[in-house]
Amino acid sequence: MNKTIMAVVALLLAAAPVYAAPSINGSTGLINTPSADVLQEGQFSLGYHHLKDGGVGTFNMNLTGKLEIGVAGFRYDSDSNRDNHTYLNAKYGLLPETVLTPGLAIGVEDAANLDKRTYYAAASKALPFGFRIHAGVGNGRYDGVFASLEKTINPVGIITGNNAFPATTFIAEWDGDRMNYGARMSIVPGLKLDAGWRHSETYFGISYTY
What we know:
Layout: H1 2-15, E1 44-51, E2 54-62, E3 67-76, E4 85-95, E5 103-109, E6 118-126, E7 131-138, E8 144-153, E9 159-160, E10 163-164, E11 168-174, E12 179-188, E13 191-198, E14 201-209
Antiparallel strand pairs: 1-2, 1-14, 2-3, 3-4, 4-5, 5-6, 6-7, 7-8, 8-11, 9-10, 11-12, 12-13, 13-14
């Protein structure tokens, strides 16, 4: 019986999600899509992603417990022929994720419609063995259904010398238009490094959630 209980606890720990981090579009999420995760009350996040033709800086905060608001400032190189713009984003957590049920959230990206206003609903659920799934529907840039799968490598047991390898999450997502692939490495609690392929172009980023 004790072994069974320990096995169940181990599975739940392996399924536990890491700290939330901003997506490239600003909202808490994956690469190019949001998740149902919402920053906790009093939390904020800062992030920067370097893209092939520019970069985007993000800031999110939660002052009310369920409502996350933030901005994402896109700044492009002068020879990219793309206009700079800043998204105003908001996400509201409808239901928190539990061991048995998914988290649910609704949100809007680019609320001022400077580029393409997008409304969405998203669901997220942790699974055993470090997997986590996300799915949602939206208009605008998502143009229907979006979905993603995460796999987190547990650092326990991956030892190099005297240092544990940082927890790393591998991500594959469909953003309503294309497939994106990336990895998110947790350096210390709250601090993450991101890198991967978005719309067939490389990106890398850094974020901090406090």
